[in-house]
Amino acid sequence: MLIKTEDFKKILQTIKPAISKREVVEQSTHFIFTGTDATAYNDRICISYPCESDFVCSVNSDDMSRIINGFSSTDIEITMKDNQLQVKGKKARSGLACIEEGPIMKMIQDLNTKNLLKNYKWYNLPAEFNEALNLCLFSASKDVSLVELSCLSISNKGIISSDNLRISSYSLSIDVPRDFLIPLSSAEELAKIKVTKLLLTEAWAHFATEENIIFSCRIVSAEYPDVFEFFEMTDAMKLEMPKNLKKTIDSIIFSVEGDIDIDKKMQLTITDNKICCRAEKQNCWIEQDIDIEYNSETIQFDINPIFLAQILEKSTTMKIEPGKALFESGDNFKHVMAMPI
What we know:
The protein has 341 residues and is an alpha+beta fold. The chain has eight helices and 24 strands. It folds into three domains: 110 residues, DNA Polymerase III, Chain A, domain 2 (Roll); 106 residues, Roll (DNA Polymerase III, Chain A, domain 2); 107 residues, Roll (DNA Polymerase III, Chain A, domain 2), CATH 3.10.150.10. It has an eight-stranded antiparallel beta sheet with strand order 5-2-3-4-16-15-14-9, sandwiched between helices. Helix 1 runs antiparallel to helix 2 and helix 7 runs antiparallel to helix 8. The model has no long low-confidence stretch (mean pLDDT 90).
């Protein structure tokens, strides 16, 4: 196989997220070459990148990456000889032990994404799918014991994520055969790839790019709670928060009481065209004023500064009523967070 060095580096970098950090199953830390694709599979996700080769084998991913990164020639030739995958450049040569069959190769064969791509109906994803995914990632719970909430929900209604204290929603015009959940850890890797098509099988969600890179991830079998009632507001005050509010929060957050993120709270007082941000803990307090276009009755509330700083990166349009704050961006993205009492 003759290939440009930079192209091969890109292939390996794209499939590397599906490499296991440790080899629980033989070959789960390997790059797999099937003859038609370069693939990695860790039983949670599988990424296949079109790559024609005249060999079928697997090689240790760390060793292969280090070897390829050491080549400076424009092109490399990769061949299999004497149970080695041999790489040859203009001024360098290397050999790497390879395995010609094994359990992960069998699992990839059973998944058979090439057949899925050719012979099944795929659903077109809207152009904003990756944007929606990226906007919703931060609200999903990192606690895997909260099975549903440690996933993102994808349905005809869009993408939903929540950690029980906040909810993000991005509306999509998408036609899928059924609602499904994918783990946050898988969604974080998926968001890095510009996918355009979707196919659901019984246990897997398969996403494809225009270049036929296929990202497959296991579906979580659970029912996501109905959260849309929490976005309803009947008597809300609408505010456009200053763009430098996040910077101010970041600068004084060290003075916020609370051992863990979800326990932290900061007081905001809005009056006479200014916001006063107050952070305090047992041995110190700090206040900082920011200009805002507001000239009405005084509003004062407590809010989680970490959650607020995160959403301000995505939206500064805020609606507030007792117990919750709602942020919106355009017609599609909404985020609601519970307010400390």
